[in-house]
Amino acid sequence: MLAYLIRRIFFGAFVLIGTSLITFVIAFMVPADPAVAMAGAKADPHTLATIRHQLHLDEPIYVQYGDYLARALHGDLGRSYIRRESVTHLIVSRFPATALLAVCAMALSLILGIAMGLVAAAYRDTAIDNSLLVASLAMVSMPVFWLGTMLLIAASALTRSIPLGGLAGWKSLILPTTTLALGSAGYYSRILHTNLCDAMEQEYVRTAIGKGLSRARAMMKHAMANALLPLVTLAGLDLAGLLSGVVLTETVFNWPGIGRLAYEAIFSLDIPLIMGTVLFSAFLIVIANLLVDLMYAYLDPRIRLEEIG
Amino acid sequence: MMMTVVIFAGCQQSSDNFGFPPSAMVLRLASNDDVPSLDPAAGYDTASWTFEQAIFDTLVRYGDADVELHPEVATSWESSADGSVFTFHLRNDVRFSNGRPVTAADFKFGIERVIDPATLSKGMEYYQGIAGAAEFAAHRKPHVDGIETPDPYTLIFRLSGPDPIFPHKLAMPFASAVPREVVEKWGEDFSRHVVGSGAFKLREWIGGQRIVLEKNPYYYVKGQPRLGGVVEQVGVNAELQWLKFESSEIDVLEAIPPSEFPYVMKTPALRALTLNKSTVTTEYLGMNCQMPPFDDVRVRQAFNCAIDKQKLIAVINGRGIMARGVLPPNLPGYDPDVRGYDYDPAKARALLEQAHFPHDPKLPLWFRADQTGEMLAESIQQDLALAGVSVALKPVAWGPLLEAIRQPKNVQFFMSAWEADFPDPENFLSVLLSRKQFGSNNDAFYTDPAVEALLGQAALVSDMKKRYAIYDQAQRIVIADAPWVFLIHPVQYVMRKPWVHDFIMNPMRPTRFEPISLSQPTGD
Amino acid sequence: MKARANAMEVIGAAMVASLVLVALLAPILAPHDPTRAVANSFGDPWPPSWRFPLGTDALGRDVLSRIIFGAQISLEVGIAAMAVTMTIGVAIGLSAGFFGGKVDFILMRFTDVMLTLPGLLLAMALVSVLGPSIRSILIVIGIVSWTSIARVVRAEALSMSQRDFVMAARTLGAPSPRLITRHVLPNVAPTIIVMAALGTSGTLLLDAALSFLGLGVPPPTPSWGRMIEEATIYFRVAPWLATFPGLAIFYAVLAFNLLGYGVLRQRAR
């Protein structure tokens, strides 16, 4: 078990380094001169050269990369060119807003998705199942930014009390959460539906039903646990994705989170901030993967027993 | 969890007057973007200057509604006959918000900080004309020799050449009095912990959420500021700001959403709440005179006739006036009689014919990537298509745009704008259209010997009337040569609640908080 | 059972066909030039009327015509991007599955790294670097989307390659490319086709998202995502402006989802 864990951690570290390498290469291709971004275009060449030297931009690329990596390991992701603030500080200050949205949206999408999937599976092959199938396909087909805008329009026409953007009290959570949750709910409902139906086909479940257990009870007692596990795993990985910022929703609702931070960074070609947000996102995904691996290792006896056997 | 506490804390604050006493007058504002910086050496945008001018003092400042120089910390000043030495006499009752008295040395420190390349200040160039600035910047000298402080309340500037408009450079927040000990304590994070001698001090700045200012107890002007504090929520988009203004959660609406604007102007009750100012800005399309097809003046004039400027103004809901020349109204030296180019698509096509303009070259139009820019660019693309010119839009970020257009023979066609730094035609004509600004601000790479001569002449003239006349001559030549398509001068509209008094718009600066008062306290 | 799955397939196919038709016949179907100002509605979009059934936008252009022409560009980008994605994904998946060993290890580690990178952010950054144009968007969408195809194809290629006859052929020295194209690929093909249909809905959404963020096909070409972005500032006075292009995207994405899902269900039975 321990050896497995250590292997997975090494793997995660490797992936992170690979990610940082790719990110660095892309950042290098960005057509913006950092010195100009910082000093303003009116600065003279001598000043620009000084700034470039201070930022180590005159050193060979692999030195710069090594530098960056070393500092990143200490949590220093550099300073934003445009905002002059530490990238780490910017990310940390915006994270709570995104986290709040992510957790609420995930909760709502799971509740909705599980409900839909359960009902569809329970009433399998009936009109209810069909309509839920179409509904979930529809939910998955809607562009998130359009759905958000439509909800904004509806809300503004119907009521004056829901804030239409920005983080401003719990009411402002309603619209962005719903926007985010609907798409995922559709997706999760299909997954649960498939897993539940598969689980219900299992030998031991059919035996239990044959012996007199009602379908409903069989579903809840036996099938659900097996069906939920992969779904929750998926949700966990998705949560990591959500936590790294949902650009589209945050843009539509002007949510002060990491997604919008990344969007602003990309548009102002603020290289350290772009790299910081991408790396942060990758970091979250690697951690989530590690946690999932841990959970599976714990649950799957084959891995636990690997050492002994 | 923590996040819930943060949200509820936010709600709590707004209902108990943001921590101010219930009777205090607190001006409530909102903005979309966070303030980039409060450090006077760093900030160079409207948002930063709005707060910097409240927190810091300069030697001189503009009036509430004009661009004349008024005393601030300096009670009086004189210049030498040739305009190369300026002496300022300071008040002795000005204090920083931490209680420490302000002296001439604090101004010297602030300005040297701007000149020091390590600060990366965008205001560096304005003070290069001070003798000794170059040596200081190169670290050959520990101080700028040209800034003298013979005693704590006298400040002398020796310039390396005559500059009649130098005092205007001291009215910019770059030249604020800055307490050395606070800067040294906070280093690069000074912006978040600023201490100045202005009417207000920084009480709280939660990144991405809000900035709160409160009265500076040591402010030297009795009776000012009348406000007890200012609160600006950030990260509030234009639509939400509108809603908050409607429900009286904020007192001033500085960014009226484009979609509400026609509605506001058609409703008398709402229109009465608006204030506007014509900005000292000219938006233009730069045409690189050194690159085909714009090396032919007929093509440049054709483009001027092909673009419907009134349509542009309609697209931005009337928030502008047509530009007929280089200088904007409100700038001293503006000539209301220049004609410019009216919309005349037939004339445009004729001129292009004459110049044998090649059909369909897919000309790229570079412009700053923001919403207004996109709309204007698309409208321009539409107009030029009708004249037989196909234009490809190329939105870029501001920094890369500036970089690109400054290189010679690089970008042919671009949208840009210039806002006056000081109220003088020199700031437009010499900075944007003279030969020595090639590779710097003269992005159209335009030069004309007659214009050069006139510009050189005018710069040294201290008699303003004569000065403006010479500049006007130069402007008329430029208009005929059309290195730019003169687009519009933006007009800025704001709305304010009836209980907000003395919110006065200034052509060149953000509105000052100092005179504002509210006739109902916000504690409700 | 069979009938129901057919319904989804059929409806999906019909919807896709309708899109293709609209795209092909755009110049005939659209009442106006989508880029010219045909109404004086500058800064003040007009609501739907007999003359302009879906209204006009803030630059005086007819919304209906723009949506019709938008189908052209959406399909072009959606399908071409899918082709790019498929090419990359299938190539990598096949190589990994067939050659196994070191090749598989390296390719899969590379896939893992790509999976860790945030897709939309990466796409945005790449388009910023390359500049928005049809070509760069195709490449970028391809780069961001190939991983899921690669994994599925790899799994199938792997199982295919373990088959006796394939292994026998290899030991006998048959050239690999021939083996892949002759035996592995044809068996993997049905999966690829289904994933292509489902994947096109993904590329359409990604393209719409990039357009919405200002990184899509540049104007004056009408693009549905961009139309929504331009409409957001008018959402109070002109809500139809944002509604119609979104409905178009929804219709297109749903079409491919129904088609793909329908075929998938059909095969599963």
Structure explained in plain terms:
- The complex is a heterotrimer of chains A (309), B (524) and C (269).
- By secondary structure, chain A is mainly alpha-helical.
- Chain A has helices spanning 2-29, 34-39, 45-54, 61-73, 87-122, 127-141, 144-158, 174-201, 203-210, 215-243, 247-252, 258-267, 271-299, 301-304.
- The model of chain A has no long low-confidence stretch (mean pLDDT 81).
- Chain A is built from 14 helices and no strands.
- In chain A, 77% of the residues lie in helices and 0% in strands.
- Chain A is flat, with a radius of gyration of 24 Å.
- Chain B has helices spanning 2-15, 46-55, 104-115, 133-137, 166-169, 180-186, 238-246, 261-266, 268-271, 297-306, 309-315, 345-354, 371-386, 398-406, 426-433, 449-459, 464-481, and strands at 26-31, 60-62, 69-71, 74-79, 85-90, 147-151, 154-158, 200-206, 210-215, 229-234, 252-253, 274-278, 281-287, 320-322, 363-368, 391-396, 413-419, 484-496, 500-501, 517-518.
- Chain B starts with a helix and ends in a 6-residue tail after the last strand.
- Residues 1-14 of chain B have low confidence and may be disordered.
- With 524 residues, chain B is of the alpha+beta class.
- Chain B is globular, with a radius of gyration of 24 Å.
- In chain B, the strands form 5 sheets. In chain B, strands 11, 12, 13, 14, 15, 16, 17 and 18 form an 8-stranded mixed beta sheet that branches.
- With 269 residues, chain C is mainly α.
- Chain C contains 10 helices and no strands.
- The mean pLDDT of chain C is 87.
Keywords:
heterotrimer, A: 309 residues, mainly alpha, 14 helices, 0% strand, flat, B: 524 residues, alpha+beta, 8-stranded mixed beta sheet, 4-stranded mixed beta sheet, 17 helices, 31% helix, globular, disordered N terminus
Indicate the overall shape of chain A. Answer: flat
Largest interface: A-C, 50 and 43 residues
Average pLDDT of chain C, rounded to a whole number, is 87
Tally of DSSP helical segments of chain C = 10
Unreliable segments of 5+ consecutive residues of chain A: none
Specify the number of helices of chain A: 14
The largest pleated sheet of chain C is described as:
none
Instruction: Give the termini distance of chain A in whole angstroms.
Output: 11 Å
Q: Over all CA atoms, what is the radius of gyration of chain C?
A: 22 Å
**Count of strand segments of chain A:** 0
Strand proportion of chain C, as a percent range, falls in under 5%
Question: Taking Cα atoms only, what radius of gyration of chain A do you get, to the nearest Å?
Answer: 24 Å
The strand count of chain C comes to 0
What oligomeric state best describes the polypeptide chains here?
heterotrimer
What distance separates the N and C termini of chain C?
9 Å
Q: Share of helix among residues of chain A? A: over 70%
Helix and strand content put the structural class of chain C at mainly alpha
- Strand proportion of chain A, as a percent range, falls in under 5%
